[in-house]
Design a protein that fits this description.
Distance between the termini: 36 Å
Helix content: 10-25%
Number of domains: 2
Number of strands: 18
Strand content: 35-45%
Order of helices and strands: HHEEEEEEEEEEEEEEEEHEHHE
Length: 255
């Protein structure tokens, strides 16, 4: 399934691409016992659940090794493994919404391990945590057609979750990678915006930081907005004890 020639060509092409252009990571941390995804925008990580990728960026069609995943030393327990699962089937952006794919699939591979992001939710793969507790991995993502021919171009949306097998850390909230295959940047941007607004929007109003749960970080945000409308959960244009009561009643994972 995995095209070794394509991957070898991609690695060769990568050598001629500036290092900055090759490297894009989803930053991983653990907050309140749960994995959280974010993006480092230069001023430190900012919680984020929608990420972009471009097939062909390394000069090889239908292939990319971005985004990578980066957890700092001490994030995970040495001896544990971290990986991802597919929490929904692969979708294709049609210009105004996402729809199920036909024959399109994305293979995610790392050395001899691989998993297919297909039409349905499915288990993924996990890799060993480094000796210092860090986890920095780049999977090879390859777009292919199963029992058919690939469309000439498209934008594909993969919904994933990150997990640890340490028996303690809870999986991340779902996050999305929006893969562009030969469509314009404007179309890619439109797909990212649609996913952010329609799939990644906080599932409950009390999830103020958008990490899929109501927890101490949301309480901190609410307290920081005390006396203003910024943390208002009761539609009275003020953040006060009534809003704390609403937040505490929704404590835990958003459903």
């Amino acid at each position: 399934m995995r095209n070794l020639i394509t991957i070898a060509a991609a690695l060769a092409a990568a050598a001629s691409v500036p290092a900055l252009a090759q490297h894009a990571d989803i930053t991983i941390s653990i907050e309140n016992g749960r994995i959280v995804t974010s993006a480092d925008l230069g001023a430190g990580p900012v919680a984020q659940r929608v990420f972009s990728a471009d097939f062909g960026a390394l000069g090889v069609p239908d292939f990319t090794d971005e985004p990578g995943f980066l957890a700092a030393p001490g994030t995970f327990a040495f001896g544990s493994r971290t990986g991802f699962n597919m929490t929904a089937g692969l979708r294709r952006f049609n210009g105004s919404a996402c729809e199920p794919v036909a024959n399109e699939r994305i293979e995610a591979a790392f050395l001899t391990l691989s998993a297919v992001i297909g039409a349905n939710p499915a288990p993924g793969i996990d890799l060993a945590v480094q000796s210092d507790g860090a986890w920095h991995r780049h999977f090879n993502f390859t777009l292919f057609a199963e029992g058919g021919k690939l469309p000439a171009s498209g934008i594909y949306v993969a919904e994933l979750e990150l997990y640890s097998n340490d028996g303690v850390t809870a999986p991340s909230a779902p996050f999305w990678i929006v893969f562009n295959d030969e469509r314009t940047e404007a179309e890619h941007d439109a797909a990212i915006a649609w996913v952010a607004a329609n799939l990644a929007a906080a599932p409950c109003a009390t999830d103020l930081d958008g990490d899929g749960q109501t927890a101490s970080t949301d309480l901190a945000i609410l307290l920081g907005a005390w006396g203003t409308a910024a943390g208002d959960l009761t539609d009275d244009a003020n953040t006060d004890s009534a809003d704390i009561a609403v937040l505490l009643s929704a404590w835990g994972t958003c459903g």
